[in-house]
Amino acid sequence: xxxxxxxxxxxxxxxxxxxxxxxxxxxxxxxxxxxxxxxxxxxxxxxxxxxxxxxxxxxxxxxxxxxxxxxxxxxxxxxxxxxxxxxxxxxxxxxxxxxxxxxxxxxxxxxxxxxxxxxxxxxxxxxxxxxxxxxxxxxxxxxxxxxxxxxxxxxxxxx
Length: 159
Description:
Elements: H1 4-18, H2 22-48, E1 51-52, E2 58-59, H3 62-94, H4 99-121, H5 125-158
Antiparallel strand pairs: 1-2
Helix pairs in contact: 1-3, 2-3, 2-5, 4-5
């Protein structure tokens, strides 16, 4: 039988290994920031920065650039989330820590991934409009959800 002190030592080590390292934080927070900013800039130019183009339609020349950067950042954030699944999420779940906010943030990234895919591949305009609104509403809320997850962890630590 393992002594209680030894169990606590192992438990603390496991918690310590669940925390994000510097590179994980850099790529996660940087990726979320880049996604949020490019999405916001696209929204602003799409709805408020329109002007006539050569064929009579309305669009902004900044929109395609923002979508290219947004798509590249989305691919990068998927790599970061994949790295988090193997350690941070798995260990956090095993420790029964921050589960509610963890499920919320993981579900949010899942919803954004599926809706982003649908925006790229679904051709039906009515479906695209609904998915588009859902994508940008959830996307705009993403930083708040990340902050909520961090604050929940800090609150748990203080108990």
